Amino acid sequence: PAVLALLLPVAASADDWLLLGNDGHWRFATHRYGRMVAVDGDRAYVGYMSNDAVTGSRVVAIDVPQERVIVNCDIGGRLAHGKRDDHNYPTIALTENGVLHAFFGCHCTPLLYRRGDFRSSDPVWSATTEVGQLATYPRVFADRNGRRLVVFFRQGHRSADPVSFGYIESNDMGQTWSAFRPAISEKLHNGINAWPYVGGVYLDGEMVHIAVSWWVYHSDGTTRKEYDDPCYFQHRLGSNTVQEADGDICPAPVTRAQL
User: pTM of the predicted model, to two decimals?
Assistant: First the structure.
């Protein structure tokens, strides 16, 4: 099936984060619109948005060899700023204990979270909780047993100062969450508002690899938007510094001017 063409198999090591399921420990660097596919043997899980009044989120389990849907779950959703919004997509991770973690329903609004136990034919889902504020573009990394989860997203809104990109962590299978920890933070400067757009995030052990550019808004009577200054840097989880590609060290959160 075409959904499997989205996956990139890479050899696993003991330090790998389990991104896409049990069979072979697949992983890949995510696009800013998130990870919507997980694989476990002959079964694929796909997250998508429904064409309902709130562009709600759904997760479907597919028997790949038989090309049939096993279960289709409506995990909920809501309007973002009073309108249907295609940013509300779910991003998912399946862990070795058969639990699927889904983050969804946000566009500069609270990030919603649910986890579903897929060890039975009738998945049991947790209640919906809010785990982030003013969030957009979530993507999740989970360790092999699902106890530790790291979720990256952009935080902020046009009326907020600053707009940041960073992460939250859970060390108890999503029961509790850390405060938001920014790796990038950008403020309005001289009528120019530069929003960080992270094209890729890859987590290798405790080291985060981030590729980012900025969507620049010029407030000079005419609104112009452009992508500018593509950059790459590394950040160790929990640290207060980032390292640029040339080896320079900057304090975290880093700004566009520093990079």
Answer: 0.84
